[in-house]
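Hi U.,

Before I forget, here's the chain from the pilot set. I'm dumping it here mostly so it's searchable later in email.
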Amino acid sequence: MTPLADAIHDGGFRSPVYDAQSVFRRIMDAFAQPGTGVCLDGMAYGPGLPPAMAALLATLCDHETPVFFHADIQADAAAWLAFHTGAPLASTAAMASFACFPCGLTFSFGDFAIGTADYPDRSSTVLLAVEAFDEGATLDLAGPGIETSRRVRIAGLPPGFVAAMAANRSLFPLGFDLILVCGSQAMALPRTTRIREVA
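Structure:
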């Protein structure tokens, strides 16, 4: 096999049932406590993907969850994910259950599926890579799962991030959910989270 073929066929969960359950439990904890990081190290490795993003996709995707990849990571990552989960490739972010983006992009947060009044769960979950946690912009978080407020620092967020997330929250119960990833770390910011930048 070529190195690329090896990367596509390798990198899945070593113990699929146990590892998927472990990742699912951790990401549910992250959604229950927005702004709290969880470690997904040593779980799965997809070509061109941060380890946390690979582990999340390997856990959450199947043949009924179309996935959109930004062009910078699409080819190898899509083949890897299809091999391990059967997830189809979505041609646009609006058609995707999961939309994946590398760090350092400028893009429109209006491109994602936000669900419908009857089916608000038919929305996108956006997986976005960032440069670092505990560095960069200081954000104050509030809302469900946060007793009073929680402060986080995140480096590498796209321009207009705070305003876009405020607009997304105003759509509730519609809107997309967001998972930030950095290396093997993941942080959930569901659509219900209020986000304010601290000067």
